Amino acid sequence: MDAIAQFFHNIPIDLLIIQTVNGVVTGMILALVASGLTLIFGIMDVVNFAHGELFMLGAYLGFVVFVSTGSFWLALIGAALVVAILGAAMQIVALRPLIGRDPLNTILATFGVSLVLQNYALWQFGPVVRKIPAPIGSQFTLFYLQYPWYRLLVAALSAAIIGGFWLFLKHGKFGVWIRATAQDRVMAQAMGIPVPLVYTGVFAIGAAMAAASGVLFAPMVGVSHTMGLDWVLKAFIVVVVGGMGNFVGSIVAAIFISLIEAYTTIWLDPSRAVIVSFVILILTLLFRPTGLFAATPR
Amino acid sequence: MSALAERTAPLVHVEDVHTYYGKSHILHGVSLNVAPGEVVGLLGRNGVGKSTTLKTIMGLVRPSQGTVRFDGVAVNGVPPYRLARRGIGYVPEDRRIFRLLTVMENLRTGLDRDGMTEDKRSMLLDKAFTYFPVLKERRTQAGGTLSGGEQQMLAIARVMMLEPKIILLDEPTEGLMPRMVTQIRNIIEALHKEGVAILLVEQNVPLTLAASQRVYIMEKGAVRHHCAAAEIDVHHPIIKQYLGV
Amino acid sequence: MTTAPLDKASSLQELAADKAQSRHTAVFWMVFSLVMAALIAAPLVLPEFWRRLTTEILIWGLLAMSSDLLIGYTGMVSFGHSAFFGLGMYGAAGALLLVSPPNLWLAILFGLAGAAGAALFVAYFSTRLRDIYFAITTLIFSQIFYVIIFTWTAVTGGENGLIFTRPHLRIPFLYDARFTSTTMHWFVLAVVAGSYLILRRITQSPFGMVLQSIRENEPRTRAIGYRVENFKMVAVMLSGLFAGLAGVLYAVQNEFAAPDFVYFLTSGETVIYNVMGGIGTLVGPIVGAGFFHLMRELLSRFFGDQFPYLIPLGLIFIAMIIFLPQGIMGFARRWLNR
Predict the structure, then answer these.
(1) Which chain A residue has the Cα nearest residue C216?
(2) DSSP assignment string, A139-204
(3) Which residues of A touch C128 (CB under 8 A)?
(4) Could you tell me if A233 lies within 8 Å of chain C, comparing CB atoms?
(5) Helices marked H in chain C — which ranges?
């Protein structure tokens, strides 16, 4: 008992707080990426393997817009819009023909799209990492660190986007359409709701969320054609741990996993800390396969 | 009887329709029609294909053979949401209201369409609440919290929001208390007075005969008998033949 | 009694079916022998580059076949084959580095053991998850293995992988010499052909029938009384073993093991071979692998090395899912049946 108390006593409080902040920041971005995935899966039963590439494309497009306009905010909005359209196109061309077929087909199709997009980015932009500077460069002192304000801004913006979407879902015509379609696709049609359009719209929204995350995250890590891969894996883990199709669950899971990973870096090298998310995944699959936070769906 | 059917161009005209579920041949050449404003009953034992007929008209299943015409236009393969907007309302066998949406939101799914004005909206809502006062009470409650009878009312109310020309009603009185059954009967009557056509699938023979102008009787995926409702009653040998146990 | 003429009719039918079956088998062996003859002759007539390419196609084909057992026959899409392949590769590397002189058979043993370990791990979870969850989880697992291999530099050489020398092809008492490009090809051919025949036997056996029944209708198979979990686990183990074998062959042929192959992209490409070739055909995946690599060669010859060949190939892949879900083999079959 004493040893444990000693152990926790030895962790400096300031380190704990720093890692809490880090965890929340990363968690919010991850939540934004994952909620797009959850949305698409929950409403359309599609596992979007190309989600990471939409994230990556968003970052690249943001870079392009930024270079020509000098405005980070234009980059954010521009990238989200273009990727939304791209997402809609992708859904219409590659996914609509597959509705009604074995769901495994959509996994394969989105995987194919992810390959195409990834290689396209590599081809167009090359392997050089691009940089988008943060819109606010100032920092504040967090204990012994100079902590960038931008990180807090990112967390706040992610929360705002997710919150905004939640409101959209709960009120307004399209929100009702989406929720009705998610609950009973057949009766939604019988009530005159244009379900194919709803699907395309939802996919576009999910894509836009991924793209926005990409632009938001870009100043922190730089834009490269592989950035999607790492994030999509984490996002999938979050979605499974949170409960597939569970919007709130995936947000909670994102923050939970990021926090634990952040704390783990107190002891472990960051490249090893990723093991944490894997361990949480395995534990979830063993003991609560429907999701750790599967409270109420949607 | 046939004069009645031929005088006005049918609103819904089903001709020699064959429908399959996978390899199962469910409908073997079903033909029927419903004139505007008419209440037509569709009787038959369980599993003869009555629900499938409704689903075929609604476009939820596609016939492999035969035509479905609505308002004179062939609608084979038209997606259901377009048919709903053109004026076909569908109330399925298990109600299938949106359980996680509130009563208001359920009604909204029928109200949110092109050409809707604020006035029309409130008019339709008032109508729904007049027909079904209990829905007004429960309008902010989630659909799943309603009783079976209330859900049935909601299912009919929301279809009314579409201002349909015809309502396909699948076993509306199933599992309901006698008091509710009477209420359904009254609603069918009220809708008929408004000029809405109804294709009524039911196991309750007296109710069907009382509410309908004509009835079709199905067996094994085809229409076996067709007559005016007034011509037969519940003790008629035909009824015993096709609906007796 | 009316059974007598019925008996006659049914036994005539059986006779006809038997005849068709044996004709079928005869055709199969004929085609098989022809293909084998061509592949055996290949290294003797082809220039070095194409020789190596053919050998590599065979190895990827074996990997794809192993994957087909799961996708095509049991209905489980797995993105985890890179882990089995990779562990087979590293297992072989281990044997070839630790034991002196390097022994081919030991390498195979170690490789299979490594793959079996991974397969056991995946198999356990496979039985608890269905479809999409399984696919995602295998993907994540293959990445777990990747991270472990990538970071455990002391054992696996980390990013740089391991380099080792090829063992001799040593059949005790009969033969002992270094591999030449030709004998390497024949060895790989022998292993792949043997694996194909074994897998074919398995898929045509009662066990294989149950797997296919699981693919078509799992709840019904369960309802009939089969322990679906056990069948799935065995399927995953078998699939993993053959994938590991492919990894061993790759290691022996190329004399290195690298973490790149454990990256889930390898799994993805394997699935592409399956879909392009035709799932559920066993031969299809090999054809798919061949098609993919040949197209890649053609594209880089026409458009240069830097050409992102995965863009057109990816697009073809997507188009095939939508329009030609039976793959090349499926298309060929329908065409031949006309």
Answers:
(1) A102
(2) EEEETTEEEEHHHHHHHHHHHHHHHHHHHHHHSHHHHHHHHHHHH-HHHHHHTT--HHHHHHHHHH
(3) 285, 289
(4) yes
(5) 3-45, 48-68, 81-98, 104-126, 131-151, 153-156, 181-204, 206-216, 218-224, 228-254, 264-277, 283-303, 310-323, 327-337
Structure tokens at A258: 């990021």
* Beta-bridge partner residues of C171: C175
Distances B33 to A9, B5, B96, B198, C47 between C-alpha atoms, Å:
82, 8, 26, 11, 75
Inter-residue contact C267 to C60 (CB < 8 Å)? no
Residue A153 contacts by C-beta under 8 Å, 6 or more apart in sequence? A135, A136
Residue of A nearest to B78 (CA): A189
The residue in chain C having the minimum alpha-carbon distance to the alpha carbon of residue A41 is C132
| B60 contacts A180? CB cut-off 8 A | no
Least confidently predicted of A162-166, C143-147, C328-332: C328-332
Q: What is the pTM of this model?
A: 0.85
Closest by CA to A257, choosing from A50, A40, A12, A23, is: A23
Q: Is B202 in contact with B41 (CB distance < 8 Å)?
A: yes
Q: Do C308 and A122 touch (CB under 8 A)?
A: yes
- The answer on pLDDT for B202 being more than 70 is yes
Q: What's the gap in Å between the CA of A26 and the closest CA on chain C?
A: 20
Burial category of B245 from C-beta neighbours within 10 Å (exposed 0-12, middle 13-18, buried 19 and up): exposed
Structure tokens at C182: 């030709």
Could you report the per-residue pLDDT of C46-97, keeping only the tens digit for each?
788 888 888 889 999 999 999 999 888 888 888 888 889 998 988 888 888 8
Model confidence band, residue B124 (pLDDT cutoffs 50, 70, 90): very high
Confidence of residue B104 (pLDDT cuts 50, 70, 90): very high
Angle at the Cα of C325 (from C321 to C328), degrees rounded to 5?
Answer: 105
CA dihedral A273, C77, C273, C253 (to 10 degrees): 50
Which chain A residues are closer than 8 Å to B113 by Cβ? Answer: 192
Name the pairing type of β-strands B197-201 and B166-170.
parallel
What angle, 0 to 180 degrees and rounded to 10, lies between the N-to-C axes of helices C228-254 and C48-68?
Answer: 170
Whether the ω angle into residue C101 lies within 30 degrees of 0, i.e. cis, is yes
**Number of inter-chain CB pairs under 8 A, A vs C:** 89
Entry field: residues in chain C: 338
Question: With contacts defined as CB-CB under 8 Å, which chain B residues touch A187?
Answer: 92, 96-98
β-strand B73-74 against B65-70: which pairing, if any? antiparallel
Q: Report the residue from A187, A194, A298 with minimal CB separation from B100.
A: A298
What residues contact C86, with CB distance under 8 A and at least 6 apart?
C145, C146, C149, C247, C257, C259, C261, C262, C266
| Residue of chain C nearest A105, judged by CA positions | C321
Q: Tokens 């990112």 sit at which residue?
A: A154
In angstroms, the CA B141 to CA B174 distance is 23
Q: Give the count of beta carbons closer than 10 Å to the beta carbon of residue A170.
A: 11
**A184 interaction partners in chain B (CB closer than 8 Å):** 96, 98
Kindly determine whether residue A176 and residue B100, on different chains, have CB atoms separated by under 8 Å: no
Nearest by Cα to C121 from C83, C165, C92: C83
DSSP string, A218-285: HHHH-B-TTHHHHHHHHHHHHHHHH-TT-HHHHHHHHHHHHHHHHHHTTTS-HHHHTHHHHHHHHHHH
Question: How many contacts, defined by CB atoms under 8 Å, are there between A and B?
Answer: 66
Structure letter (DSSP) for residue C272: H
Three-state secondary-structure class, residue B168: strand
| Residue A202 near residue A83, CB atoms below 8 Å | no
Q: What per-residue confidence (pLDDT) applies to A106?
A: 85
Which residue of chain A has the CA closest to C270? A108
Question: CB–CB of A192 and B108 under 8 A?
Answer: no
Test C321 with A98 for CB contact under 8 angstroms. yes
